[in-house]
Amino acid sequence: MSKDYFQHKANNYEQDANRVNNVENIANSILQNLSFCKTMHIMDFGSGTGLLLEKIAPFVDKVTAIDISNSMNKMLADKRKKLRCNLEILEMDLSKTKLDEKFDGIISSMTMHHIKDIQTMFKDFYNMLNDNGVIAIADLDAEDGSFHTEDSGVFHFGFDRKIFLNFAKEAGFKNLKIESASIAKKPYRDYPIFLLTGNK
Fold first, then answer.
1. Topology annotation, domain 13-199
2. Domain ranges of the chain
3. What is the mean pLDDT of residues 20-45?
């Protein structure tokens, strides 16, 4: 099994007020840009402790949470009874293992910079969506590498928005939009975060 980069931080992950506030901003931006309904089954890619999905949960029927970290998945599992939707947790590396399932939407927060091949990931997203299925992918604007102060399996120091949007376009997504969603605040500087939305 791959190294669990988040094992040492899972228990305290949600005690960082800036992190919690950041994900709330992203969730609000998603809800402003996309319409969900109680028949929908969505995937949260890189779900972590569930900070994002618990904000979207009241508006959908089911969330499949996918994360490679066993420790983060355990934290999410502890929330199961509190969530206002059905929850499935899959511990897997979606960049290496294909998931033969269809979703009505895919959401993700701050996970794509941990993925080596962005173009292939977007193509996989496209193939996993039902017709008219939506995506909402939030991540860092291009930065100097200072966002991560320790090794956590990072492949990209954020993204140029035009290039990121083009990855989604090349995969076949339409009605694409990219906009500022939040600012991750760290003691030494602020890091802008964008949200990409679109549909199949």
1. Rossmann fold (3.40.50)
2. 13-199
3. 94
